[in-house]
Amino acid sequence: MDSAAKKRRMGLQQRKEARQGFVFVSPWIIGFLVFTAGPLLFSLYASFTNYDITSRQEWIGTQNYATMFFHDPLFWKSLHNTLYYVVLSVPLTTLGSLLLAVMLNQKIPGMKVFRTVFYLPSILSGVALYILWQMLLTPGSGLINVMIGWFGVDGPAWLVDPVWTKPAIVLMKLWSVGGGMLLYLASLQNVPEQLYEASEIDGAGPIRRFWHITVPMITPVLLFELITHLIGAFQIFQEGYVMSNDMNAPGSPMDSLLFFNLHMFLKAFKVYDMGYAMALAWFLFVVVIVLTIANMLLSKFWVHYEGGDNR
Amino acid sequence: MSTRTASGRYFQNRKTKQRLGKTILLLALIGISIILLLPLWWMIATSLKSLTEIMSFPPTWFPKAIHWENYELAWSKGHFARYTLNTLLLAAVGVISHVLSNTFIAYGFAKIKFPGRNYLFSIMLGTMMIPSFVTLIPQYIMFSKFHWVGSYLPLTVPGFFGAAYQIFLIRQFFMSIPNELIEAGKIDGASHYYIWWKIMIPLAKPAVVVIAIMTFQGAWNDFLGPLIYINKESMFNLQIGLQSFKGQETTQWHYLMAGSLMAMLPVIALFFFFQRYFIEGMNISSGTKG
After folding, report:
1. B108 to chain A: which residues are within 8 Å by CB?
2. pTM of the model
3. Partner-chain contact A126 B57, CB within 8 Å
4. Do B271 and A221 touch (CB under 8 A)?
5. Which residues of B are less than 8 Å from A24 in CB distance?
6. Best interface-test mutation with B: which of A34, A124, A183, A185 has the largest number of B CBs within 10 A?
7. Min Cα separation A87/chain B (Å)
8. For chain B, does the N or the C end have fewer beta carbons within 10 angstroms?
């Protein structure tokens, strides 16, 4: 039966059902139009205007985008900071959480306690966490440098030294990789036991088993984590705002923590250059979309879906 | 021992190797646990020290004398009572609105057939890819035109219109509940509203708890929203309050740590009460995304 015929035969009952379906999803439809689609269209339009909310909005063509690329050194600085952070943090946190998950997937008494301890740091977030890490990273008497000192090495000045500010934030992120770890753990536990048994009979060692069974089996989760991590890392903002060493100059020292979103935030809410801020937002949006699509396309070569293409 | 055969020795060897491996793993797990817990201990210890002890070098691992008054002073100096109350209010509205709207919407996507349903659902999944900062500024402009800036409305109203990730999570859960239950309810004359409220929400309790916890955590730690929309000190939430407290109390680490610990405590308590659900939430989401 073709669908047109089916539709014509849609009875009273089905029409009532369909109406109710729309009622149930209508909050989302309204929310999508008002809080997502509308703002997206408006911000695209506004990025071509000179706009400060109070006075009138005037069309200035691509001037905001030209300013961005040719007249705003902080655009490049903040882009560099963000890329530096993304390149450093995404592989390290991915490896870190995967490593912890593999360790937690062994059969050892007391594993429940270890899982709790490993997961605990990741539930802590917000300003309190940043204040804690600012104390831990204090040069000299801070815990991190005290621990480094045990090995006879003088720790860097972390948040005071522009060279070390971004590694300091990555260190903090590594401390709280528990969320990703739990996802990997769940997917590790879904790997069929028979695969390991079969390969053991064939004489494969633990490292071979890891690369040839474990990794292929968890690639879908790896891809998901990679994409969400990448999108998340590009949006880093709060760390730069709260952990800068001068409250009155967010992103300090020497703009080393001026991340892209922080730059955009300051343009929008400190100097009310809204049109320009929205041009910045769209630039980053395009970068994120391109990277996400590239990731999806590349995933064909390394992501393994059980049973062919049942994604 | 000497009577063992060659193959017996092989297994013996393998067993010792395995035992050695497990011992190394156990030691590594203990080592990492200590490294992960030290920052928290450092925080607790600092919050109980005197300022002179904090400044002394080398640092002490245990406070020489316990200064409980740091907590009292931070609480009163930092206006923590007010901020906590504000944060609780925002979190409560957040949890209620998210649970109601997301289960409602997810029911429509999971259990009612209507034309275009799959298109709408795909669009919804697509919105998860949109970074929040692209809509942040236009939303601010919109709320300022509504004259909502300076009130809690921008922080609470959007919660009633669904959040893609949570709808997705709940929908996956609803999908696993058999349709026969709904059919049976309908035969008994129950409406979809009744089925959603009286059958689906109770059955989906684990998933509902997961999104409630997620929302609570999110509202408790929300910084950017209040930073943009709230300009009166009496309306600050804990995150903004803590940030301004930090501005006034630079290097007063004992107060800052006491304050930070108090701000983290509810989330830590929640974690220990609902540990099972934290882990389950991850399982639900990984099972659907994998």
Report:
1. 20-25
2. 0.89
3. no
4. no
5. 104-105, 107-109, 112, 192, 196
6. A124
7. 18
8. N
CB contact under 8 A, B133 and A261: yes
**pLDDT (tens digit, 9 = 90+) per residue, A177-235?**
888 888 888 888 888 888 888 888 888 787 888 888 888 888 988 998 898 899 999 99
CA torsion, ordered B255, B260, B263, B264, to nearest 10 deg: -140
Query: Residue A146: its chain B contacts at CB < 8 A?
Result: 58-59
Look up the ipTM and state it: 0.87
Look over chain A and give the mean of its residue pLDDT values, rounded to a whole number. 89
Spacing of C-alpha A32 from chain mean position: 22
Is pLDDT of B6 > 80? no
Q: Percentage of residues in chain A with pLDDT exceeding 70?
A: 95
Reading phi first (left if > 0) and then psi (alpha if -120 to 50, else beta), residue A126 is in: left
Question: Average pLDDT of B264-274?
Answer: 89
User: CB contact, 8 Å: B29 with chain A?
Assistant: yes
Are the CB atoms for A182 and A105 separated by under 8 Å? no
- The span from the CA of A296 to the CA of A276, in Å, is 30
For chain A, strand residue ranges (E) read 49-50, 58-59
Q: Please, which residues 57-76 of chain B have a Cβ atom closer than 8 Å to chain A? A: 57-59
CA B64 from centroid of its chain's CA atoms: 35
Radius of gyration of chain A (CA): 25
Confidence category of residue A310, pLDDT binned at 50, 70, 90: very low
- Vertex B256, ends B250 and B258: CA angle to 5°? 160
* Chain A residue closest in CA terms to B225: A238
Q: Residue A100: which of A179, A17, A198 has the closest Cα?
A: A179
Q: Quick check: helix, strand or coil at residue A115?
A: helix
